[in-house]
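ENTRY TYPE: paired fold submission
RECORD: A
CONTENT: sequence, then C-alpha cells
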Amino acid sequence: MAAGAKTGTSENPSNPGGAPDAWFTAVAPMDRPAVVMTSYIRGGGQGSRTSGPVVKRALQYFLAHQTQILKVSPPRTPSAGTPGSDSGRPPPPRR
C-alpha cells in the first residue's frame, strides 16, 4: 500500500546531548487516506531513523485492525455554534 511521509528536525538547545528533535508524519493509503500519524521524539536526531520506525509500527497495527478501530465511534461533541461549545463556559440557563 502506498503511503506518504515527511520527516523533520528542529534545533533545541535544551536537549540533553544537543541532538535535534525529530518527527515523522505519515498518511495512508495515499489514494484514499484513512489515517495520519505523527511521532515526535525530543532529542531524537534524524526523524527517519528514530520517529519513522514508531510510525511504521503504529501504521502496521492500524492497518491490521482497521475494521475494528473504525467501528468505534468517537465521543460526541457539541457542534460549532452551540452555546458553550467553543468558549469553555457552560450554556446559558433555560428560561
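RECORD: B
CONTENT: sequence, then C-alpha cells
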Amino acid sequence: MAAMQRFKKDKLSFLDTDSETVQRLKEECNILIEQYNTLENPLTDQGEQLAAQITTLIIKIKGLKESNFDKSR
C-alpha cells in the first residue's frame, strides 16, 4: 500500500490573479485529483482515465495562461 502513495497527486493552488475560467478549470481538476488520490490502485483503467482527464485540464489551464486570456501577467 505504501508503494501506491508515490502515485498521489497534489491539488492545484489558486492565485488571486487567476481568471474565473482558470479557477473553474482548477476546481474541476482538483475534484478529479481527489478521486484519483482515493483509488486503492491508480494503475487501473479508472486511474489511467482520471490521470488523462487531469492532464488534459492542466494543458488547458497552461494554454489559457500562455495565451494571455488569463490576465495574471
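NOTES ON RECORD B: The chain is about 55% helix and 0% strand. The longest helix spans residues 45-66.
STATUS: closed
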